[in-house]
Specification:
Blueprint lengths: L6 E6 L16 H16 L4 H6 L2 E2 L2 E8 L9 E9 L4 E9 L5 E9 L2 E2 L11 H7 L4
Amino acid sequence: MPTPEHSLEIELSPGFHDLDPMDIVWHGNYVRYLELARCALLQKIDYDYPQMRDSGYAWPVVDMRCKYVRPVRYGQRILVRATITEWENRLRMDYLVRDAVTGETIHRAHTIQVAVDLGTGEMCFASPPVLFERLGIAP
């Protein structure tokens, strides 16, 4: 069961360079916003990408699902919440993007990452103990 320590929210305001010809945020930029929230959450648990590498594992994203509910516009303040919801056999993060003023849902997504042993290049079928340690959970 996720705890508050397994969740983090950041605030962003898209710049002009994030817009498409329709004057709304281009759909591909949402991936960058999710990555910013994911990295902030991983930093919070002291298991960001450099610590993953140093522990002997890479954690590539192997699946990503996105649901676009409303467009984001230039200068709009948004909140991006990342929550770790699975960790036993893979690392799943759920995301919720909301308008910072109204609280309206703008976007929902999730990513799935798997551990890959950097020494062998083999995918792990269970998450390594280091992830449980960083989450403060007994395996």
